[in-house]
Structures
1.
Amino acid sequence: MRCPTTSSAIRRKMSRGRPGSAREGANMAWRCWACTAAPRPLRLAELLLQPRRGFRRARPRPEEPPAEAAEPRPVPQPPRRGRSLCPAPPASAAGTASPGRLVRPFLFAVGFTGSAFGSAAIWQYESLKSRVQTYFEEARADWMDKMRPQKRGDFRKQVNSWWNSLTEGQRTVTGIIAANAFVFCLWRLPGMRRIMFTYFTSNPSSKALCSPMLLSTFSHFSLFHMAANMYVLWSFSSSIVSLLGCEQFIAVYLSAGVISTFVSYVAKMATGRFEPSLGASGAIMTVLAAVCTKVPEAKLAIILLPMFTFTAGSALKAIIAFDTAGLALGWRLFDHAAHLGGALFGMWYVTYGHELIWKNREPLVKAWHELRTKSTGKGGGGRSD
């Protein structure tokens, strides 16, 4: 900072050249330095507005535990899935369950099983009636229509030839395999994930309880899981359909899927492990157990090891022992409760259930026949006998 008054006075003194100008110039320079170095007096307003300076006490910080005493937070792991490996469900899908939630699934299992067998009995009646009508229509048809040359090389003819080469059991399970493949494709659509988790996976803590008991039977997330189940179903299709018939087999298969899922509900409620399950393993175990119980001397082999053969009775015992051990020891790779429930239902049905349920369908069929004949008679074009 400069002092303009003192510096101009020094220049005037030195320009005049008077004696003693050096001494006076030194004095003036000393005063200029003192004026520059001395602090400027503060005004009252500046003193009041100047911020207060000093030491402030630091805020007390919470004591932190040492690094050794700090417990690491557990990393959440996705739950394991039963009957297949599938991605973790949405956070909103998880919940708790109480034993009272098993009432509706139980009533649904009983009602659906009765409806399935009743519908199968009516379906068999209509199928037999249609076959009889077709037979008489073909007998009355002109023999020249049968002698007409058929087209060769047509794609439709090739498909019909392949279809006719299949057994009745293979033709029956073709629709089931197609339904499983369709649901498998739905899992690949990102926009369908929440719907698939809600209605195509079974879990007693889910908001949907009854419909997943049936829909989860046709649901697979893993391609290998679906391929293995469908291969087993295709392999046993001829035996089970020749044993039960097409209509009765469909009723048993659908009922087995619902019943095995209900057994899985009970096991999850008892153990407190509410994990989603999916797959056709429970219904397929019913088919396998029914065939092995009815024909225990049949020879079976493993899919990847066809050189090792064993009897059907031994295979059924090994499967039941494996699923029982898995359920008792808490293994979580498969839904062992659903497998065990399906196997026990298949053994019970071919032993007692066939006589108890299917052989007593005559009152229902007779009532349906009377209803059909009455409705046809009212129409004016049918016969009453």
Note: Residues 103-140 form the longest helix (38 residues).
2.
Amino acid sequence: MESLRIKSLFSSLVLFVLVSSPTLSSAASLGINYGQLGDNLPQPTDVIPLINSIGATKAKLYDANPQILSAFANTGIEFMVAIGNNLLSSMGDPQQALTWVKSNVQTYLPATKITGIMVGNEVLTLNNAELSNNLVPAMKSVYAALVSLGLDKSINVTTAHSLDIMGSTYPPSAGAFKQDYKVYMQAILSFHVQTGSPFYINMYPFFAYKSSPSDVDLNYVLFEPNNGFVDPTTKLLYDNMLFAQIDAVYSAITLLGYKGVSICESETGWPSKGDADEVGATLDNAAKYNSNLIKMVAQNKVTPLGSSLDIYIFALFNENMKPGQTSERNFGLFQPDKMPVYSVTSVRLTDGVTVSSSAVERYNSLILLFFCIASIAIL
């Protein structure tokens, strides 16, 4: 009888291990935003080694520049091309969407590795009802064009959001979209579920620090050692703001019933220079932010809720024609003359899957607890 009891406990332990083991994350990926708002930028062919030098495997454009797409043929670098907000109304017409895809995507395949189409940028937070209403129809028409050309399995369709779509981000478990955007978000997330495409959002801890430097720990936003905070609901520890923002978005998506949608960070970065009121915009802080970020991607880190890092750093170059404050023209990793603005960690991403350290720690604690209970029961 006693041996049967022990055997039953052992069987329960095996089952426990199988159902409670930490989730394996898919390999992280590093991309770079390749903006072109400069009158002194190098030729696209000269840009290829710069992208390779930081270990990036992907690049995101804000258009479908034919010179760039041609130059990157047979390089293996994946490209995300974009349809501007000014074209959203016309993209609702299936025929115009098909014409655009043929001219700006199909033409460069398969030599140039185009894997995504970004339909619009931060549309909802522009508070333009016409643009917002045109967004999902445009996404659907572009996707239908890919289907008709047999390209839907290799190219996804998405759009990029500003973090301003969030009504709540703290703590991450309380993440929720603003009520004004709820209807749009449901339609967008439904599209992502139907097509299997990821949800892209732009995240800048720099702006949170800039707006309230006395209330935000600089180490917390730069991925430097700090005490962090524990989410009171999930009891998970957050030691950097980017992870907290990602998980807040994940909570918001889950709240609307779309838990399976993956999240990608379409823009994140830190400026190396700013105006007098742009606290934190320094060379040292920019180097720390981007170096630490690249390290975490290379190590295949995941957020406490298990989201992998699919990151596009902003940006490749300092772009002298960008409007706005000084910081806007100083987010680049490189100067237009191809010299690094500062030294960043250069690493190669590893293939495979990893388990987050926090998940392993929770898993080991649960296993230890189970063994203690089993031992007491046997005794």
Note: The chain has a mean pLDDT of 88.
3.
Amino acid sequence: MPPILQRLQQATKMMSRRKILLLVLGCSTLSLLIHQGAQLSWYPKLFPLSCPPLQDSPPRPKHMTVAFLKTHKTASTTVQNILFRFAERHNLTVALPHPSCEHQFCYPRNFSAHFVHPATRPPHVLASHLRFDRAELERLMPPGTVYVTILREPAAMFESLFSYYNQYCPAFRRVPNASLEAFLRAPEAYYRAGEHFAMFAHNTLTYDLGGDNERSPRRDGAYLAGLIRQVEEVFSLVMIAEYFDESLVLLRRLLAWDLDDVLYAKLNARAASSRLPVLRPAAQIRTKQLQPWQPSRKVDIMGYDLPSGDAGPATEACLKLAMPEVQYSNYLLRKQKRRIGVRARPEPVLDNPPPPRPIRALPRGPQGY
């Protein structure tokens, strides 16, 4: 036999012996493990290939105290409607403005607890327009309140502000033919700091958040950084209008609410931008409770209407789902006054509400305000 064939036969015999030896060792080890089943506890630690059994964690109770900073033209009215309906469903007290403040907390003044109707104190929920003041809100709201707000991409928000407040903001009224393009070409020609409602023409979100909207982020980056730190410190959630549904998922998870608690209908849509056939111009809405407030004759705010003749719990739920801010605020105020037994009488007028405090400069240290 040639030497090469002899070597191959020897190698084959050696491989066969090794296979037999490994097979014997494997069988012995398996037999040992079977008879020592209690020793198998090491297996998951060494080979974490399987998930531990799922355990149902107890559901968290719903969080009942929420302060929502309602910013302008950011889909905030839709969030407000969600909070109003939740509060009504759970018999919670909603902080509502004093009649002298109309349906906002005397905006654009700095917020004061004096602006809250006495029949709506102490509140569980706050969701009407105000200029943020942390100290005043913490004095009004109970400990453990969750603070939430919503922001929107500034360019889209400003376009909406310009058309909505065209007859209210002096800077916008000065623009020939109400042209947004003309204003953007030379805003300094129309804007006057300190005028009533001037904040709608210059850094509105900064103003709503309690900051100084006249401070330039280009010249004073430290101020803007401090304002951002304050927002991060105070607000547990900052919703984003462009990601509204995703923001609602986060809100629901934050507050441990049910899915039904965050159902919504899009409110305050403009006729020029809305393509939803279910929306109607305010003049065509027959149900007075659903007619949205119109800022001017040049702006047509759309709303919803309900079929006539229907009644029952489902119709009532739909009515609240589509009810505009002013009507819902008035409805809740009447309901809460009845609950505490307040007799119908003329409301006192705040002849001399607290003057707005000067805007404090943000410190440059890492602590923010």
Note: The two ends are 95 Å apart (CA to CA).
4.
Amino acid sequence: MEAGKDSKNLDSEEAGAAPDNAESKESEKPASKSGSEEAKDDVGDDEAEAGSSHKNLVDSLGHYLKDKLHIGDKAEKKKKVLPEKSLEAVVKYIEEKKITKIITMAGAGISTSAGIPDFRSPKTGLYNNLAKYDLPHPQAIFELDFFHKNPKPFFVLAKELFPGSFKPTVSHYFIRMLYDKDLLLRHYTQNIDTLERVSGVPGDKIVEAHGTFFTSHCLECELGYELDWMKEKIFADEIPKCISCGGVVKPDIVFFGENLPSRFFRCVEKDFDECELLIVMGTSLVVQPFASLVDRVGSKVPRLLINREKAGTANPVMRALGLAGGMDFSSDTNRDVAWLGDCDDGCEALAAAFGWADELKELVAKEHELIEKEEQESKTKVKGKI
């Protein structure tokens, strides 16, 4: 670390505060000085040495801060990771370095165009539209203690948000394209809507950090249930009860008060050491430990944010002192690139930079047509039974 290097420099400067010719000057002192005079000289020498040491410490600290804050003409210019902050520079980096291990991280922003509300947006966010559920506070609907007391509000909300009611977005299909082209190491998502799976990204390539509706378990005996079983109960306006013990069955999404899935931690330990490029989409990067994942990649690994606003940045002074991580979009290294706007638009722009624009458009149209066909066939079967 640079801080460690500077600490060594400080130590060496303090140790070398006495002049090289101290011994010869000592021999030139008159021998007739009294003890009290010698004592005064010793005190003076100590004060001078302390003053010199203090000056060295201040000077060294000043040089350290100048280097970290890039103040002054002699501040060391750090090597650029990308030639410029642009999508084109990111794509060129991928092509020239033959990158094949891209990690994508996503939040609710990649699903909003599908009609699924995010949690924190003013007026339209999910937390701002929960008054009808008569909760003590909005987050209570995802608190385990409250769920044990009254699971009904959660299952009413789940019916509105249940997987299968929405189509994947352009952003989901862009991630699918990264997989199809053997560029995707892993996709980490905060979302519980399973739209990554619907888009065709295999389950082993997905880490659902906050859990998923895809599977469910009884809170009492831990018996597992599949998606179709849970969907049938929820759409019948029933509270799902275990067929074995009668306990409430909860989808495997992470509530406040629950640990993240063990697979999340296993994959993080392996994946982020291998990551060659990080793409972050549609997340405010405020929920931990997901937010801190941006710091798990190597210091020379480019990081691209596609979001409506800059996110994941740390206090610049704290970062300069090496006391905080996060993304730094002002750095001259051009390591961090921010594309600001809707995620779908950003993914379309990135696809265009790759030369994939038409391919992405065709994939979305084809997949949506298949989903609509399956939905129509499902409705026809239901009518036939009636």
Note: The beta strands are 102-106, 184-189, 206-208, 211-218, 224-226, 249-253, 277-281, 303-307, 336-340.
